[in-house]
Amino acid sequence: MPAPQTLADHPHDAMLSILARADGERLKSFAETLIPLLGDIDVLENRTGLVMLPMRDTAQGTNFHLGEVLVSEARIVANGQEAYGMRRGRDLEAAMAMALVDLAVASGIALGGCTDFLDQEAAAQDAADTDCLRRVEATRVEMETF
Amino acid sequence: MAYVATRGGERAIEQSQRLFREEMGTITAARVAEIRRAMPYLIDRVMGEASLYDEDLAALALAQTGGELYEAVLLLRSWRTTQPRLAVAEPVTQDGLFTHRRISAAFKDIPGGQVLGPTLDYAHRILATEVLSDQDYRPEPVEPAARPSPAQQPSVAAWQAENDLLTAAEPDKTAGNDIPDITREPLLFPSKRAHTLQSLARAETGGVLALGYAAQRGYGQAHPTVNELRLAEGEVMVKHPRGTTFSAGRVKISQAEVVNKKGTQLELGFAATLGWNEVKVIAAATLDLNSEGAPKGSATEEEFFLYHTEGVESSGFCIHFKLPHYVTFQSSLDAMRDAKKKKAAKIPEPAE
User: Fold this and answer.
1) In a domain, B324, yes or no
2) B248 shares its domain with B168
């Protein structure tokens, strides 16, 4: 099996995190364009399920379960590469689209297009975070002691 | 306890369910989307108590039950059992939270400062009745600051530990499926701390508030001060089959620490839940703070508060009293009649 490729500008962990948070409709549209390039794909898994989410207590340091998060998962194989998608929510197509982009990058297919897509989504996510945090900053209390 | 099997209610039951559902009318995707959009705090409360994070499902449960919260939570807990568990994420830590609101009532100058975030704490509570006369209520827009607030904020407790005000907690190394889980193990007492905190995370808000409030009013041993309260988002960190750790998305989390003086140091109570529900986590952290050494049967004893704040069990037990108890009740009546008869037999009749 050939070693999976990664993008120079988006390490594997960052790429997956961007795809998991990417706009679902844009992700699906982009993944559609990759399908003809990827050859025969075996779908091993495409389902919804739960991820247990633990948290660490700050009083005694204990890890405990906060609850379960609904996710959609896709696991596919092609070109000797296994690819994966997992996103919060119940959109199976979006999870599959994420796995298709992961597959394309691992297989060294359409790397330029994938980089462009990830650049755009990362920029949109950064802008949304900045906008949110500027609004949060507006509520900062400037303490004045009398 | 005895029950009696009865027949004859089939049609009545069918029609009663129709009567309940007919009132809500047709449930559409648009209605579910509107509930999700317009009532985020109700959605959060339901997700926290259901212990299942998905806004669409929570909105659907509310639409389907007409906002009957116990039924909505029960629907979600039931649906959850149909889903496989795919993974256990890495533990969320306080210093990694994407923070929207962070305040302290104990120290005004906490490292990182205080941001109020979205709150009505200081609002006038005035009902906008003009909306009912066709005048829309349009909230004033936020005026964003020029620079963003830091996404991650330092821990107040860590700062207190550095200043010898409390003992820093040793991070737990337990991970994955080794973390105790009350959805797969019985809740036994004395409870494992992981079970206690998980139970409080999924507890019913009103129940936690009632018992936490009892402790705050003086039925507990320790008076809480909010050391740090956060409304934030946490990353759901999972593993790719190749071993890469990544975020599958963010979820809203509330977290509260309450503090009390104990000897020469401070002691902390802690609670957190899925969704933004700060009343619940402050009350739950108060119970955590008060639980050590609490008298048996008191509101702050863990067995008492954990059993009585589990919403599905407590509401289920409460409503089961509506079900036919004809044999037990008939038995009580028989006993009453028998007692009356015996009492009457002992009293001599007045002489004629």
Assistant:
1) no
2) yes
List CB contacts of A4: < 8 A, sequence separation 6 or more.
Answer: A81, A105, A106, A107, B242
Count of domains for chain B: 2
Assess if residue A3 is contained within a domain.
no
Residue to mutate among B246, B302, B312, with most A CBs inside 10 A, is B246
Domain span at residue A80 reads 12-133
Dump pLDDT digits (tens) for A63-108: 999 999 999 999 999 989 999 999 999 999 999 999 999 999 999 9
Q: Is residue B7 part of a domain?
A: no
Contacts of A136 in chain B (CB under 8 A): 99-101, 115, 117, 148-149
Q: Are residues B104 and B55 in the same domain?
A: no
The owner of tokens 């509107």 is B34
| Any domain includes B347 | no
Alpha-carbon torsion A23, A24, A30, A34, what sign? Answer: positive
Distance of CA A122 to the CA centre of its chain: 10
Answer yes or no: are the C-beta atoms of B237 and B90 closer than 8 Å. yes
Cross-chain residue pair B145–A134, CB shorter than 8 Å: yes
Q: A–B: how many Cβ contacts below 8 A?
A: 253
From chain B, the residues in CB contact with A65 under 8 A are 179, 181-183, 194, 198, 201
CB contact under 8 Å between A55 and B108, yes or no, is: no
Burial of B262: CB neighbours in 10 Å, binned 0-12, 13-18, 19+: middle
Number of domains in chain A: 1
Cβ–Cβ gap B87/A51 under 8 Å:
yes
Residues B29, B144, single domain; the answer is: no
User: Domain containing B73: what range?
Assistant: 12-80
Chain B neighbours among A 7-26 (CB < 8 Å)?
A: 12-14, 16-17, 20-21
Do residues B179 and B219 both lie within one domain? yes
Per-residue CA distances from B95 to A64, B19, B104, B237 (Å): 16, 50, 16, 15
pLDDT digits (tens, 9 = 90+) for B150-208: 999 988 888 888 888 988 889 999 999 999 999 999 999 999 999 999 999 999 999 99
Question: Under an 8 A CB cutoff, do B248 and A71 touch?
Answer: yes
Spatial CA neighbour of B259 closest among B280, B286, B284, B234 = B286
SS (H, E, C) B35-97: HHHHCHHHHHHHHHHHCEECHHHHHHHHHHHCCCHHHHHHHHHHHHCCCCEEEECCCECHHHC
pLDDT in tens, B263-308: 888 999 999 999 999 999 999 999 999 999 999 989 999 999 999 9
Give the DSSP letter of residue B215: I
Q: Is the peptide bond before B190 cis (omega within 30 degrees of 0)?
A: yes
